[in-house]
Amino acid sequence: MLSKTMQEALNEQVRIEAESSQVYLAMASWAEIQPGIDNITAFFYRHSDEERMHMLKLIHFINDRGGFAVVPALKQPALTFPSIKHAFESLLKHEIMVSESINHLVDIALQEKDYATHNFLQWYVAEQIEEEALARTMNDKLELIGDDKGGLYLFDKDILTVSVVEEEL
Ligand code: OFO
Fold it and tell me: Which domains does the chain have, with CATH numbers?
């Protein structure tokens, strides 16, 4: 059985994962109307779906442990971006915020001596390491590319490889 404190904290994470899904969905919709970046667009759509999966995993866990998962109201995310580089910078910032939130949840699980939740959260800890690393790599590449349109063309091709690698993980 989840403590009230643990349940509230997990429900807050449900909101964060749901908002993450919205954030990346908005990036996908914006990217879709930019010319020539179909694979970046697909990456954002897929990332949005993954965040929804992260949210659902939490919802099932809360309900399975005798709690009640609350479907949250969501705020509207940023809808447009000055450039693709800005979108990916914002993605990295968002993932760092999510990692901090997961770490905070782990702290609470330990304080509550809730070892089942602590164990469950390790999946999220590992996932955040991957997501942050991926976001940093993409930002580094975009930094190198600068305003080079040919570079962006290759980045869009390259992101297909990232998608394949991610699916294999
Ligand atoms: Fe849910 O991992 Fe990104 O935010």
Answer: 4-168 (1.20.1260.10)
